[in-house]
Design brief:
The protein contains two helices and six strands, in the order αββαββββ. The protein is an alpha+beta fold. It has a six-stranded mixed sheet, covered by helices on one side.
Length: 156
């Protein structure tokens, strides 16, 4: 069972992680407070593990002049049948990216994560983001999320 303290700590981890991304203070070891050493991250740019996931994150953000990541609706629970000290979380995200020419690329997405409780608190072991919608010019190598067409009304 996930305690209120676990939920609060996991939500704070999400918030701190997004703020760290936007602050871009990527000093050596910056990710240790967020990721397990073998963390796996899956984004529209690809999948990376461990130190490569950290480098990929830094490289992805370097494509932009600045960014702002906002999280909402964090849902965190320990999953039945998983090891003690493991949790799953998901949250909505609004990610605003400012290209170097000052144009915007915005993404509305959903993050899903598996977390591990370490001696220093919760850390992301697995994290994946799925774009629900995009607006603006994506970075090179990333396909634009197609606009959804309204469904035809059901008859009968």
């Amino acid at each position: 069972m996930t305690t209120q303290t676990d939920r609060t700590e996991i939500t704070a981890l999400v918030d701190r992680f997004f703020r760290a991304l936007d602050a871009r203070e990527f000093t050596p070891g910056w990710a240790d407070g967020f990721l397990t050493p073998d963390a796996r991250m899956q984004t529209p740019l690809g999948t990376a593990e461990g130190a490569a996931a950290v480098r990929a994150t830094e490289e992805a953000l370097g494509r932009y002049d600045r960014t702002q990541h906002l999280a909402s609706g964090v849902v965190a629970d320990t999953a039945e049948g998983t090891a003690v000290g493991t949790a799953r979380a998901s949250w909505n995200a609004l990610m605003v990216h400012v290209h170097h020419d000052a144009t915007l690329f915005q993404v509305g997405g959903v993050f899903e994560a598996t977390l591990t409780r370490t001696g220093d608190g919760w850390r992301f072991a697995r994290m994946a983001v799925r774009a629900v919608w995009t607006q603006g010019r994506p970075p090179a190598g990333v396909a634009q999320t197609p606009a959804r067409q309204p469904s035809a009304p059901r008859v009968g």
